Amino acid sequence: MGDLQQEDELLVQRARDGDRSAFDALVRKHEHRAFQFAFRLSRNSDEAADIVAEAFLRVYNALGNFKGQSTFTTWLYRILTNCFLDMRKREKNKQTYSLDEVMPDSPGDLTRQVEDPSGTPQDRIEQNERERRLQRALRRLPDYQRAMIVMYHAEGLSYEEIAEALDLPVGTVKSRLNRARLSLREILVRDEELFRI
Question: Residue 139 and residue 145: Cα distance in Å, rounded?
Answer without folding.
Answer: 10
